[in-house]
Design brief:
The protein has four helices and no strands. It has 84 residues and is an all-alpha fold. It has two domains: 52 residues, no CATH class; 32 residues, no CATH class.
Length: 84
């Protein structure tokens, strides 16, 4: 079984390269049983999407119901991304 530390590294690597089938299976199994690593993967995917589309409409889509940013925080982040 992969550790969470190994899993987070593999999640990042898998977004840039193709992993061997055995590692992909171990990664998927860990993510299925570990809420923390599953959340990390969702957050990383959201960050990648935002960085690819800096003009994205605000507010950002929710990652999970109930996990939202305040309107003030959204405006600050949006302004920072537009000025980057």
């Amino acid at each position: 079984m992969l550790s969470c530390k190994d899993t987070t590294r593999l999640i990042s690597r898998a977004m840039d390269t193709s992993l061997p089938i055995a590692k992909r299976i171990r990664l998927r199994l860990h993510i299925l049983i570990c809420k923390g690593c599953a959340r990390y993967e969702r957050q990383l995917l959201l960050i990648r999407e935002i960085l690819r589309r800096p003009d994205a409409a605000w507010p950002l889509p929710e990652v999970r119901p109930g996990e939202t940013l305040s309107e003030e925080a959204r405006e600050r982040i949006g302004k920072s991304l537009r000025n980057a």
